[in-house]
Amino acid sequence: MTLALVLGGVLAVLVVVAVARPFLREPAPASDTLDEPGELERRRLTLTEERDRALAALKELEFDHRTGKVSDEDYRRQVGPLRRRAAEALRALEPRAEARHARVARPG
Amino acid sequence: MIALSVAAVLAIFILYTSIAGAGTPEIGPSTVGQHAGEDVLLVGTVVGHVAGDAHAGGMRFLLKDDHGASASRTRVVYSGSVPDLFRTGRQIVVEGTLRNGTFVAKPGSLVTKCPSKYTPAKSKA
Amino acid sequence: MAQLGRAALLLSFALVAYALVGGSLAAWKRRRRLALSAQNALVASFGTTLVAAIVLWVALARRDLSFVYVAQHTSRSLPLGYALSAFWGGQEGSLLLWLLVLTGYASLAVLLNRRTRELIAWTVPVLGGIAVFFALMLCFVSSPFATAASPADGAGMVPSLQNPYMLAHPPLLYLGYVGLTIPFAFAMGALLARRTDERWIVATRRWTLAAWTFLGVGQLLGAHWAYVEIGWGGYYAWDPVENAALMPWLAATAFLHSVMIQEKRGMLKIWNVTLVALAFCLSIFGTFLTRSGVVNSIHSFSQSPLGGWFLGFISIVTVFSVGLIYIRLPLLRAKTKLESLVSREATFLYNNLLLVALALTILWGVVYPLLTQAVNGETRSVSKPYYDFFLHSFGLPLLLLMGIGPLVAWRRASLRALGKTFAVPAAVSVVTGAVLLALGYGSSTPGLLAYTFSAFVAASIVLEFVRGRRAAGSLSRLVARNRRRYGGYIVHAAILLLAIGIAGSSAYQTIRERTLQPGQSMQAAGYTLTYESLQTRQLQNAQQTSAVVQVSRGGSHVATLHPGKSWFPVEQSASNDVSIYHDPRSLGDVYTIADGISKSGALDLKVLVKPLVNLVWAAGFIFVFGSLVAMWPDAVEQRKLADRYAAVPV
Questions:
Q1: A48, C49, C268, C616: which has the highest count of C-beta atoms within 10 A?
Q2: Chain C contacts of B17, Cβ < 8 Å?
Q3: C353–B6 CB contact, under 8 Å
């Protein structure tokens, strides 16, 4: 009975400490605002995802072509637009990405 | 496109349910008289003595409504597997047809609503 | 110690309520320290719930009958393992398990995703809100820590639950049910934060897969428990409680597939958040079904006060998620469109429609008795024929799609290319169908179709591996470069085995029943069973009577079986002890049930010969293996993702 009470009390104290910890650690922080992605960052995130998607699609297309799932004709028709999309995303992300873009776009 | 396919699937589905008139009615001994000759699920509590052998000639017992004070009893004749939990006082479901005042159950259709998988019988203490 | 349990639960309640209120405030007003504090509260709630759980476990282990819960679910003679499993044998305990698993998952999710500051800030209150419901039930409606004067002995445990499977089946199922909460909470968090990127999907990909695996394995274990313990010879009976787990599993399966389209093509955003909400609602509904007694089932339950609470909670969750998705519709509109109806995306879409349609028809079947009761006052229920009809009309096309999908290229596939890739699998399936027909397996059309389709799927999976291996150099390199794809194929192979096993054991089974005197024999599908004698045995808490039955095939003895019955004096009930011979040649079972044992020694023997049924259980192992392959962290991918989100750390 008393043991239960003591244990319960200890538990309650631990819980309060855990919850109050962020305030105890930084009683007077320089900034207490939660970061929020700005318009620019949101756009950048979308573009990065767009880039990764295009690059992954290209890789998969190559592989499917090699295994014979995608015919030569389908491959030729799709590879162009996909490369263009990847290049666009890369260019929008960083202007200096031209070099990397060239590496990606090289056939083979 | 998506909407169209969903609609098509739903159409098949509604067609089926309306044609098959889906579902077997679940009824108790007090109302089974209105469904004589139909295939129904009879739901009730076993009362009185259980006679006969389910594997030879059929087991006979009486059912009453699970709830309410209705005095009506239905005589059931059943053959086939008898669940472990079957006995007087248990709630059961059995599928069959009422013929000449006796409910003839489909072999093997007897199911007991066990006191429960999750909430066992009230403590005997 | 009951007070400690109660106090710990009250603390849990306070903590998750703080996570809900404080977390919402922090995310809304953008307070960093408050957000961190709400996260800590969620983690701490796992600690306090764990303390409560340990208190209950200790009470169960010590058979402390002053706990009402312990007295109702155990007895002094109950073996320790089963006493511990009584934790989830009753309503209060299983609610506690829900909360324990939920807070555990939530803590892990918080700790793993602390860097996604904004997303996690909005996810925490959603998780807190869900936990508040369960904590509320445990503290004020259905407490596992109620106490009373100790009775002389407990009520014991229903004999059919005294089975090793009950140690694993319910916890796994709960790990699955509750696991679906995490993707739901992240999806809602992302919507609340107006995020249109795919961070939430990346963060929850493995959760969904893990929860789905647990749910699948949990169900399979439950099926096996029913098979070896309940003793009617089947493993799935479309019971509401079984359907309760199948529905969220189907919805989660649909989600796992359609989320790939969003990742690859940026499409179907609305559909995906809807699916994840549907899967979560169905998992809550599943818990509600097994807990409320609102629908009759063989596992039926007495009416409990929880019904109304659960219904209210499901309504709130549904209104919240539908409303939120509706408000955020403008954000979710996709820029890309489906390019062709003959593409991988399109097959995924068909697969999704069929899976969701199947889940919804099952849902309709489950609530049908309630609806008819409400509409015309007469309860009507649907049974096996209804479910079988939809399993055939949606399940068989799904099976076929499993073979077609992998062969079709993304975006657009020309029919010429398709013809080439389809040639081999199509030929294999036609030959298989013809051979089966010639052998006389045309007796069951769905069975024949299932096998023909299975041959197609099997051929297409093998083809994928063979061609992939040729292109990648070696099998291990092939799997390593795309674990999710090839893990997925392994899971497909498991589903295939499952389908073959189900079709074989249901469409082609043989059932024979006879009353035998000692010395007499009976025949069933080529097996001869001879009843020799009876024997009795005293177990720890039961008395067992079993028959000695010799099984032979083609004149040679293959097994000795002991079907019988056990009598449990504390629980005042009997239990069937089925006895099974696994035939390694046919991968099937000879399943014997002692339906009746008379005083004179006559035995009512029921024999079921179920071909290929062992494939169903074998499928479980392959399923887990495939899921693990798909879940295994991929270093290259991790680096890529880290790189992607390093630039925008919120």
A1: C49
A2: 364
A3: yes
CB contact under 8 A, C299 and B117: yes
Count Cβ atoms below 10 Å from residue C102 Cβ, excluding itself: 28
Kindly tell me if the per-residue pLDDT of B121 is higher than 80.
no
Closest Cβ–Cβ partner in C68, C73, C290 for B120: C73
Show which subunits contact C, needing at least 3 CB pairs below 8 angstroms: A, B
Eight-state DSSP code of residue C67:
B
CA distance C418 to chain A (A): 8
Q: At what angle do helices C117-136 and C199-225 cross, to 10 degrees?
A: 30
Q: Is C377 left (phi over 0), alpha (psi -120 to 50) or beta?
A: left
Partners of residue C121 in chain A, C-beta under 8 Å: 34
Diameter of chain B by CA atoms?
Answer: 63
Burial class (CB in 10 A: 0-12, 13-18, 19+), C355: buried
Question: Given an 8 Å threshold on Cβ–Cβ distance, is C263 in contact with A23?
Answer: no
Residue of C339, C381, C522 to mutate for B, most B C-beta atoms under 10 A:
C381
- The Cα–Cα gap between C184 and C272 comes to 10
DSSP code, position B24:
E
Output the six-digit token pair for C613.
């049924």
Encode pLDDT of C466-524 as tens digits. 988 988 888 888 888 888 899 999 999 999 999 999 988 888 889 898 899 999 999 99
Cross-chain Cβ contact B23/C349 below 8 Å: no
Q: How far apart are CA C490 and CA C630, in angstroms?
A: 9
In chain B, which residues have their Cβ closer than 8 Å to the Cβ of C153? Answer: 125
Interface of A with C in 66-105 (CB under 8 A): 66-71, 73-74, 77-78
Residue C544 near chain B (CB below 8 Å): no
Q: Is C252 on the interface with B (CB under 8 A)?
A: no
For A38, C1, C215, C587, C618, the CA distances from C494, given in Å and listed in that order, are: 46, 47, 15, 16, 8
Question: CB-CB: which of C155, C290, C606 is closest to B120?
Answer: C155
pLDDT at C236: 86
- Distance between the two ends of chain B, CA-based, in angstroms? 63
- Check if B20 contacts C (Cβ < 8 Å): yes
Query: Two tokens at B108?
Result: 């093997």
> Which amino acid does the sequence have at C533?
S
Which residues are CB-neighbours of A102 under 8 A, at least 6 positions away? none
Which pTM was predicted?
0.89
Cα–Cα distance, C172 to C213 (Å, whole number): 9
The set of residues, in sequence order, having a beta carbon less than 8 Å from that of C582 and lying 6+ positions away, is C589, C614
3-state secondary structure of C315: helix
Selection from C357, C174, C332 nearest residue C268 by Cα: C332
What is the ipTM metric for this complex? 0.83
Beta carbons of B35 and B54 less than 8 angstroms apart: no
Task: Tell me the β-bridge partners of C590.
Answer: C581, C609
